[in-house]
Amino acid sequence: MARDTDIHLRNKVLYSVFVRNHTKEGTLRAIEDDLDRIQELGTDYVWLLPIHPIGEVNRKGNLGSPYAIKDYRFIDPTLGTEEDFRHLVEEIHKRGMGIIMDVVYNHTSPDSLLAKEHPEWFYQDRTGSPSHRFVEWTDVIDLDYNNVHLWNYQIETLKYWATIVDGFRCDCASMIPIDFWLLARKEVEEVNPTCIWVAETMYPDYIFELRDEGFYAASDSEVYAAFDATYDYDSRSLMEGYLNGIVSFESFLMIKQRQEVQYPENYIKLRFLENHDQKRVQTLVKSERALLNWTAFLYFEKGMTLIQAGQEKGILHTTSLFNKDPLVWEKKEGIDLTWLFKKLEQLKVEPTFSSEHYHLTGDKDCASLYGYYQKGEDRWVGIFCLRGAEVSMLVDIPDGTYRNLLNNEDIFVEEGRVSLQGMPLIFKAKAPPKRSELVYSPYKEQVSLSAREQTGV
Hints:
The protein is α/β, with parallel strands linked by helices. The chain is 30% helix and 19% strand. Residues 446-457 have low confidence and may be disordered.
């Protein structure tokens, strides 16, 4: 974790916008008409997918991926002008939100300005031709950060945009040397001391694949040296596996618990149920009650929260990255959870939610997560049945009547058990006099088993 990271970023919500497909017009100016609605969701930062000119060589689809960039220092003319961009930033700031720019520094389009002017700055295959490390990335060529002149160019570009925006989301950050990011952060601080840095880190399988091929790939732990937050891809595959019935509840819970000891104490994860590279969550979670619980856990879990445009409305269609494919906001597809997003954001700003004192356990028999933040004797408690079922769960909370902050209904704890009626529960309570070991922890169970195996006891 960058030493000067503000842990209160854990209280923040990011809202992801793909300008081309957010509106029918597909322009920067058209986004302005939706800013009030976005702000009412409790958004702190608007993250724009790349807004630079797109290459034409090896282009995928009719319009190409915004991640196949032709020139880092200009705005895609099909979206608008730099003046339009600056005006959008101004309107975002007027509403008390910040703006995050997408930085794609691992690769460019094959016909990029840099490819033409500095071919020596690119990774080359065995034939000496510019190429890419992942076979399927046919519309881009990878940059080679062994060249210090490339570092200078990229950092100067960042410093320019940092005078306009409030932070950067860095694509494929794990594939670029950490020393580059450390220097970039240091120099950007000269023009924007409060700039925030979010790293798109990688699935563990991708790290293995790259390293097996002899390529550089940084782990999340390494990336934290330069970044404020990393993607939660280290638990994503287990989440999808659990939803598809091929991964156990215990395995999913264990990876979440392990993050608390695997990363620095002040680590921040960017938590999400969906993003532009993933399926819509409502195509994975079909039950409304289960969806309510997963969404509430998304906000409750320690870290920044990411919303993909349309998620709040229950839009099921994932827009194409390569073609004109605008969101149809009027179409009723899935479950509209706007009310829940607004309610959860009101809780997300609670300062205790940025605390290091976060605990997560669970009950494998009823597939329910039990988490809490504790400050002194006070707890903020969250209980989430991932199946959305009516279950009874053992908890270490004093018997009594509590109030669910999501719907103002009473919660009863009797004889150390709480009943869930399908709704997620978030409430305030007092901690028990002595820390309890009643709630199931697969991580502790595995550690205990390993110790017994080693000692023969």
